[in-house]
Write a structure and sequence with these properties.
- This protein is an alpha+beta fold.
- The relative contact order is 0.08.
- The chain has helices at about 15-25, 85-90, 100-105, 290-300; strands at about 5, 10-15, 80-85, 110, 115, 125, 130, 135-145, 150-155, 160-170, 175-180, 185-190, 200-205, 210-215, 220-225, 230-240, 245-250, 255-260, 265-270, 275.
- Among the domains are: about 50-125, RNA-binding S4 domain (Structural Genomics Hypothetical 15.5 Kd Protein In mrcA-pckA Intergenic Region, Chain A, Roll), CATH 3.10.290; about 160-215, Beta Barrel (OB fold (Dihydrolipoamide Acetyltransferase, E2P)); about 220-275, SH3 type barrels (Roll), CATH 2.30.30.30.
- InterPro entries: KOW (IPR005824), Rib_uL2_dom2 (IPR014722), Ribosomal_eS4 (IPR000876), Ribosomal_eS4_C (IPR032277), Ribosomal_eS4_central_region (IPR013845), Ribosomal_eS4_central_sf (IPR038237), Ribosomal_eS4_KOW (IPR041982), Ribosomal_eS4_N (IPR013843).
Amino acid sequence: MCGDVAVTGFSINFQGRCDFLVGAMAGGETGNKRSEPSAAMPRGPKKHLKRVAAPKHWMLDKLTGVFAPRPSTGPHKLRECLPLIIFLRNRLKYALTGDEVKKICMQRFIKIDGKVRTDITYPAGFMDVISIDKTGENFRLIYDTKGRFAVHRITPEEAKYKLCKVRKIFVGTKGIPHLVTHDARTVRRPDPLIKVNDTIQIDLETGKITDFIKFDTGNLCMVTGGANLGRIGVITNRERHPGSFDVVHVKDANGNSFATRLSNIFVIGKGNKPWISLPRGKGIRLTIAEERDKRLAAKQSSG
């Protein structure tokens, strides 16, 4: 039946239609069968990070490669951390390539918060203490007024502790109270006076709380997010907005006032006295004109 059939001078080809029907009845590839996807769907977490999509505060130029080091999973978020390879290679210039950073880390020279870290993409973050035993150097990751992690050197005495913001307090099994910090630490049986948004001082050797600062007006704080990232000032007021975001008003040492969300505030000292050493600039953001005047004054004094 299939083939060319002549009807009053016209030739009609039924071959294609017959093949389709035969394939449909046989369940073959030519039948009405749903086509399978050509490639497998992605499974699991992403393993790559394009250079142009990396956080701006890493300060990676986009013309020296396609990819950037993707931070490993850890205590700090991807866009709020600084991978170890960026700190050693791009900031300290202790290595030229990623292989050299790997050799440094695998010799167990690098410690973060007192623990040896050999992962070159380990996500170090705000308030973390980075120690290099070979050189005797200690650093604390703190934001500058432009929202970037500054290379802030500290003394060996200051490297023994860190400040942590309290994110959550809950009661665990057997009625034991627990406290969770901004760097994912869990502390059992904390002081009952410690509440959410307070700051605790942790001894890095023992992991225990040695002191704490209440979140209260008059205390010194640093902004860890938003448009005022890196600024330091004294808390002047807290606006409560049930169902929305609480707003905190801060005044810096120059008398400039600004406001930000409560979640962006990190208390770093009682009164005007900070519990940690501050980076250059002391967290005071200058205007463009003030930066220009300061630059010209420094140039004239050196000239």
